[in-house]
């Protein structure tokens, strides 16, 4: 049995094939999804395990923030993006050794916290409820549960276009264009500096035209936004809400989204979600997912219900 850094392992396809051998039906990972989500992985600190016959039996993908764009606390954190041990090789110490390798690297790099999921270009925002049997394993190794987050879903009746009614008549809602790029980035930077700003910058730098963002306009200024994931969205621009779109006929997504601080408590948050939902209805989606949220009662107003639950789990890296 050999432990090899992922950087030196050439057959990356074997990783998602191994994952799909067990989780194809609930969390299918395509070539495009895998390549997109590991684009910022720390391959020199990630590992694969092969047996004596050169078969892949386990892997762990780790991420350390290595981007010149600064996001608060990211320099002190690290993440396990994807972690898998083949069923027949579990309870043999492989998972523990892989985790120890990550922790040793994190300690040497001076990191303070290790997270399950929640990484930039993440597969999961935490430990999925489907893997709840694995939670005690992580807890025994020092991970602590904080709280839960959710993906919510709305199933569409494709034969009936029941558009949602907006509440504000004095706000213009529309799909953004390339001409909105600088104003949109500045708006998000002003209200949500950090990850959401970085995502928007990356979106446009990877060829985004603006059509995946809807905006609210008041007095010629952007006052609200929502990113929409279209069934036709190119892979490099895919929103987290579309991560598991291979499970659906034509999945649409919403998120992130928000309202300028000076415009809150005016039903604009309701309207931007309603407008984004209507845009996806016009794009003939079969389902809509809003990912990584705790606002369950709010989204139930639009007919969304819980699709997946995730548990935030964190381990402090001690010196």
**Strand residues, percent:** 25-35%
Describe the largest sheet: 13 strands, mixed
Could you give the order of the helices and strands? EHHEEEHEEHEEHHEEEHEHE
- In total, how many beta strands? 13
Name the overall outline.
Answer: globular
Mean pLDDT: 96
How many individual domains? 2
CATH class of the largest domain: Alpha Beta
Classify the helix fraction into a percent range: 25-40%
Head-to-tail CA distance between termini: 29 Å
What is the second-level CATH architecture of the largest domain?
3-Layer(aba) Sandwich
SS summary, helix count: 8
Radius of gyration of CA atoms, rounded to a whole number: 21 Å
Ranges where pLDDT stays below 50 over 5 or more residues in a row are none
CATH topology description of the largest domain: Aminopeptidase
CATH homologous superfamily caption of the largest domain: Gcn5-related N-acetyltransferase (GNAT)
Task: Tell me what the structure shows.
Helix 5 (181-191) runs antiparallel to helix 6. The protein is globular. It has helices at residues 13-23, 31-37, 94-108, 135-140, 181-191, 195-205, 268-282, 296-300; strands at 2-5, 47-50, 56-64, 77-85, 113-116, 127-128, 144-155, 172-175, 213-218, 221-229, 251-259, 287-293, 305-316. The chain has 319 residues and is of the alpha+beta class. The two termini are 29 Å apart. Strands 1, 2, 3, 4, 5, 6, 7, 8, 9, 10, 11, 12 and 13 form a 13-stranded mixed beta sheet that branches. The chain is built from eight helices and 13 strands. Strand 4 (77-85), helix 3 (94-108) and strand 5 (113-116) form a beta-alpha-beta unit. The protein folds into two domains: 2-123, 3-Layer(aba) Sandwich (Aminopeptidase), CATH 3.40.630; 153-310, Gcn5-related N-acetyltransferase (GNAT) (Aminopeptidase, 3-Layer(aba) Sandwich). The relative contact order is 0.15.
